[in-house]
Design a protein that fits this description.
By secondary structure, this protein is mainly alpha-helical. The protein has two domains: 140 residues, no CATH class; 72 residues, no CATH class. The chain is built from eight helices and two strands; from the N terminus they run H-H-H-E-E-H-H-H-H-H. A two-stranded antiparallel ribbon has the order 1-2. Strand 1 and strand 2 form a beta hairpin. The longest helix is centred in the last third of the chain and has 32 residues. The chain is flat. It starts with 13 loop residues before the first helix and ends with a helix.
């Protein structure tokens, strides 16, 4: 979902934003210290707020990768290292593994924050058109466009089914745990069936309008790059070079 607020990033050419985002993600992955990763993440969190993110919306977007990051930290803490901090059920908790897990967590959080910032200031149409500009095969881009549409359909069906089941007390606290699981399973199966039906109708509508495997759904049209676009790209490149130099020196 694109943020409605028109910030400076909204006006940057999407091709420049993709290039800059890729550079910053590579920089985030190359970070060698936890403090650097924390500063990197804090910087893009601040930029996200300036771009129009509310704290609630930002935390909501960062929630899905949070659980993955926590699992990475836990696994690294028990699998990597030599200095044992404590033992739990015969498994040793390593100091080095914990620090390495925090570093990976910082890198991941920074990269996800960058991706969220790009997707919140760039429409899907502009992203797909930019991919075509960079000579990404049209089959791959069209497939991404269709997948994004099917994901929306699946989400809409899931939300509709959840509201319908909730209005019928399908998740009432008075029900047993087993009954609630059964209701959830029924909802999941119905969501799959309804989504499949809507997806087939969508594909049939494309075919009825002349869609074939050689058709190109995504079209590309861009204005000439402006000074602010080149300035943004140059600033991003300098910032990434600075990050690489800091990693080499410190």
């Amino acid at each position: 979902m694109v943020l409605p607020k028109q910030s400076f990033l909204h006006n940057i050419d999407p091709r420049i934003k993709l290039i800059a985002g890729l550079l910053f993600i590579v920089s985030a992955v190359s970070l060698q210290r936890i403090l650097h990763a924390l500063v990197f993440f804090s910087f893009f969190a601040a930029v996200s707020c300036l771009a129009g993110f509310t704290l609630k919306n930002y935390l909501k977007r960062m929630t899905p990768p949070f659980f993955i990051v926590v699992m990475i930290v836990i696994l690294q803490s028990f699998l990597t290292g030599s200095t044992v901090v404590f033992s739990l059920f015969g498994l040793s908790f390593y100091y080095e593994g914990f620090l390495f897990g925090l570093l990976i967590a910082g890198r991941t959080a920074s990269a996800v924050s960058i991706l969220n910032l790009i997707m919140a200031t760039t429409t899907q149409e502009d992203v797909f058109a930019s991919l075509r500009f960079f000579r990404v095969p049209y089959v791959f881009v069209d497939l991404l466009a269709l997948i994004s549409r099917y994901v929306v359909i699946l989400s809409m069906e899931a939300f509709t089914m959840y509201i319908a089941l909730q209005s019928r007390l399908g998740f009432s606290r008075s029900l047993s745990y087993r009954r609630m699981v059964e209701n959830f399973g029924i909802m999941g199966s119905q969501v799959f069936v309804k989504s499949l039906e809507r997806s087939e109708r969508l594909y049939n509508s494309l075919v009825s309008r002349g869609y074939t495997m050689s058709s190109q759904i995504v079209s590309q049209y861009f204005e000439k790059l402006k000074i602010r676009d080149w300035s943004f790209l140059a600033t991003s490149l300098v910032a990434c070079l600075f990050v690489f130099s800091v990693n080499c020196v410190l």
